[in-house]
Design brief:
alpha/beta, Rossmann fold, 3 domains, 10-stranded mixed sheet, 34 strands, about 20% strand, elongated
């Protein structure tokens, strides 16, 4: 009577001989048929078996009866079940709520990826049980383990017998023949590990069980499609001739004679014992000739209290067995098979149930520079764990590939959200180049985000790349001067308060649609190659997203340690596994593979906060994002440095008013990163300076600004200035009105150029050192020069320069001895033709002396013209300041 079922009494400890022995039906003479899944040494029929039955033979009912019978008599800590239905039928659907269930695998036929997952899960269970026996004291088998567990249940994990039922296993083997090896392994070691394999199928082809037959001790054969199938199972054709009514079959143990039986039914309608049935009325009719016709209508019996026609006895049994498994009294069953990854989940779910969206900066939950972005499926270990990305070491750069609409932009949004929640804006700064659909733009409001550039922000993108270079260059100097060995040391010292004035922690450059960026900005490829090669040493991380791996150039890809792969349009492009890539589902954005061939699901960038609606639609997402921006912006220290755009015009007064005390040299304009004045000091550093740019770029303006600031900052006793205009111009004639004036020449009056050169050489003649000294005493007696520094401003030098020489050739020796004689040259010329003039005497001397320079607008075709920097088209007044040991800095020169 199903109402009398009480787990508290039926699950009491049973003697060993009764364990796994349960009724499944009746023999021909009415005796109960007991099936014992223990091995032969314990007088059982197990541990493994086979069920074969044609459609309508009652195979599914037999399997349900076996499961219900075992569940009624065994605690979930003694017996568990894993159900595998290749076709996704309803054989086990009603059994899902049994507290004994450790896995329900269905519909493998339509989802091939699940087949591999099941293989890994079952293999993992084998290894888990072997490990448990080993850790419990190198025990031999499950019986020894259970005895030890019963003496110490609070400190040991139970090891129940696990019945693995595989329905339509023959079709599974047809699709995946390699599963036979796994079944054979279970057959061989399952006895000691408590694993019991029951294979069920409608048809059994000859030879299908090759290598497995010896492990299948009991065989149940219901009605078959052919006599041959019956003979393959029983050794005789009898099952082929069984009646068509379901549930009748034969049980054969080893070589014993088959026993005919009738399956006990568990799917019959449930009728409570309090309900009494009234006899049915039989209605019969007479034919016209008076003969009594056969019964044509039967009025059904009805109960005095009609039962629920939708409930079966199995439903009632399952409900009774599930009663102890209510919350607070649940018997935990280790899940061999976890549900497949969800198609979507929120990022907040990875932070725990009590997470309210409040950022956790003091101690990042997952560790410094380790952030969760999704859920990782590890079927071999039978777990699903957060997909954690660790940017603290060799995996500090990341590349993500995936076909359009597979979730690349969502991944970047999720990564940013995870950093926002776990790290302070002081420790992590994020900069984005969004060449996709603009999905990163809403994140610009976070204090961690310094800039989000789109494809229309051409100048800003180039500036952002240069910012990465500047961070690296500044850190090179800082590490050298502060004796810092690595970023780990820098991070640790920064946490203790050192370098508090240093604006950057770990800097991330995120690029959405790398191929489009490299198409629109060809010059950036070389920059990215350099950044991924050197960036991690100094805390600069590159994250790129692209459609295909081929779009991530080899020189970039080879230095990227972390790689994630979403679904690709062509699985053959996969760098992980072509077969695994082909199995990724279509229409599930965010599903992908890590290098270990495990699947992951990227989270949606949703973190529910107290201020946000907890829905899952786009409006709720934006509300959650806005609330998180508000929450993270409330007094949590300095924000990431923004990417500021240089103005196209800078007045002289602007740089003078922004002048910081203590700066030596002459301010010439604003630098690109903080828009601070940039100073050039030729008195204490390199003595000369080159200004290279084509017509109308602002070279002459820079000369006018320079001599004007020199004469304003220094007295005539400190600085004297000379100017030579190599074209027939008078742009620098104003210099002649200065008290600092020494000489002036212009090709409008060619003789004046020669006279100016002679004036300079004669003036500095006394300071010129001899080429050699005759004695040590001469060296000792040599006195340092005194008096003013002499500055020569040369405009448009390309107009007079030639391989055979120029009017300025006499000052070449002064250029070489510049530091020893107090001589400085500031020379301008065009970029055009510079390569062919590289060996011209004056220009060569200036370059060899290590002169810094400003490269203004010009053609890239001239190549790298100074310190590996090429010219490019720039607005008037704009140029790259290039210096030895420092990266190029973009400068906007002030108007004179």
């Amino acid at each position: 009577v199903v109402e009398a079922i009480r787990p508290s009494t039926m699950w009491k400890q049973r003697p060993r001989e009764s364990v796994l022995r349960t009724p499944i039906g009746k023999l021909e003479k009415g005796k109960t048929l007991l099936l014992d899944l223990k091995e032969a040494a314990e007088k059982g029929e197990g541990p493994h078996g086979l069920v074969v039955g044609a459609t309508g033979s009652g195979k599914s009912e037999l399997l349900r009866t076996l499961v219900i019978s075992q569940a009624m008599l065994h605690d979930p800590r003694m017996v568990n079940f894993v159900f595998v239905d290749f076709k996704g039928g309803a054989s086990f659907a009603d059994l899902a709520t049994l507290p004994h269930v450790a896995g329900m695998v269905t519909n493998l036929e339509n989802e091939p990826a699940l087949i591999d997952r099941m293989h890994s899960s079952l293999t993992g269970e084998l290894r888990r049980r072997q490990r448990m026996l080993r850790e419990a004291g190198n025990l031999d088998n499950v019986q020894q383990y259970q005895i030890k567990w019963q003496t110490n249940p609070d400190n040991m994990e139970p090891m129940p017998h696990l019945l693995i039922i595989v329905d339509e296993f023959a079709e599974l083997l047809t699709n995946r023949p390699d599963f036979l090896d796994l079944f054979i392994t279970i057959g061989r070691v399952g006895r000691s590990l408590g694993l019991h394999l029951l294979l069920a199928t409608q048809r059994l082809e000859e030879g299908r069980l090759k290598g497995l037959e010896s492990y299948l001790r009991y065989r149940i054969c219901l009605r078959t499609f052919s006599a041959a199938e019956s003979s393959a199972v029983l050794g005789k054709p009898d099952a082929y001739y069984l009646p068509s009514s379901p549930g009748v079959g034969y049980l054969k143990i080893d070589a014993n004679m088959p026993l005919r039986f009738k399956t006990a039914l568990v799917s019959v309608p449930y009728v409570p014992t309090t309900h009494q049935l009234v006899a049915a009325d039989m209605i019969r009719e007479f034919a016209p000739n008076g003969r009594l016709m056969p019964c044509s209508t039967m009025m059904p019996g009805i109960s005095t209290a009609q039962a629920d026609a939708n409930l079966t006895e199995m439903d009632i049994v399952i409900a009774r067995l599930a009663e102890p498994a209510t919350p607070g009294n649940r018997i935990s069953v280790h899940q061999v098979w976890l549900p497949p990854l969800p198609k979507s989940l929120k990022l907040g779910a990875l932070f725990g149930r009590n997470f309210d969206g409040t950022p956790r900066y003091a101690a990042p939950q997952f560790g410094p520079l380790r952030v969760p972005v999704g859920l990782l499926d590890v079927p071999l270990e039978q777990v699903q764990v957060p997909l954690l990305l660790d940017f603290s070491g060799a995996g500090g750069h990341l590349a993500l590939t995936g076909a359009p609409q597979t979730g690349k932009s969502t991944f970047l949004r999720t990564l940013m959200t995870s950093f926002v929640v776990t790290h302070s804006p002081r420790d992590v700064q994020l900069y984005c180049i969004d060449m996709g659909g603009g999905q990163l733009r809403p994140f610009e409001g976070f204090p961690h985000v310094g800039a989000v550039c789109t494809k229309t922000d051409r100048e800003k993108i180039l500036l952002l790349i240069r910012l990465m270079y500047k961070v690296i260059a500044d850190r090179e100097v800082l590490f050298r001067d502060s004796n810092i060995e690595s970023m780990a040391t820098f991070r640790a010292r920064r946490q203790t308060g050192d370098f508090s004035d240093f604006p950057f922690g770990d800097v991330f450059l995120l690029i959405d649609n790398l191929a489009q960026l490299l198409h629109d900005f060809e010059q950036i490829e070389a920059d990215l190659v350099n950044l991924v090669a050197t960036g991690l040493t100094y805390g600069v991380h590159i994250v790129v997203a692209s459609n295909r791996w081929a779009e991530v150039r080899a020189k970039i890809r080879d230095n990227i340690g972390t790689r994630l792969e979403l679904r690709l349009n062509d699985p053959s492009d996969s760098e992980v596994d072509k077969k695994k890539s082909a199995e990724l589902p279509i229409g599930v954005p965010g599903r992908g593979l890590i290098k270990d061939k495990l699947q992951f699901q990227i989270c949606l960038p949703w973190v529910d906060t107290a201020r946000a609606n907890r829905g899952t639609d786009d409006i709720s997402q934006q509300q959650a994002l806005d609330a998180l921006i508000e929450q993270t912006s409330m007094g949590r220290g300095p924000a990431a440095s923004p990417v500021l755009m240089l103005p196209t015009r800078v007045s002289r007064q602007e740089i003078l008013s922004a002048r910081a005390p203590g700066h030596a040299g002459v301010p010439i304009g604003l630098e690109e990163f903080r828009l601070d004045p940039i100073y050039i000091d030729l008195l204490s550093a390199e003595p000369h300076f080159l200004v290279l740019g084509d017509a109308e770029c602002g070279k002459t303006n820079l000369l006018r600004l320079w001599w004007s600031e020199l004469t304003r900052r220094y007295t005539p006793e400190q600085v004297q200035v000379a100017a030579i205009e190599c074209r027939a111009t008078t742009n620098l004639l104003e210099i002649t009105q200065s008290k600092h004036f020494l000489t002036y020449g212009s090709m409008r009056m060619p003789s004046s150029v020669k006279e100016s050169v002679e004036c300079l050489t004669n003036t500095l003649k006394e300071r010129t050192l001899p080429a050699t000294y005759s004695s040590i005493q001469d060296l000792i007696s040599t006195k340092a020069w005194t008096g003013p520094h002499y500055f020569l401003f040369v405009d448009d030098y390309d107009a007079v320069a030639s391989p055979s020489g120029s009017p300025l050739t006499p000052v070449r020796d002064l250029i070489v001895q510049a530091r020893d004689v107090g001589f400085h040259v500031i020379l301008t010329r065009t970029v055009s033709g510079l390569t062919s003039s590289s060996y011209e005497a004056i220009l060569k001397s200036l370059r060899e002396s290590g002169s810094p320079g400003l490269i203004m607008s010009g053609s890239r075709q001239e190549g790298r013209i100074l310190y590996d920097q090429a010219a490019t088209n720039l607005p008037p007044g704009r140029g790259y300041l290039v210096q030895r040991k420092y990266p190029p800095t973009l400068v906007q020169v002030a108007l004179a």
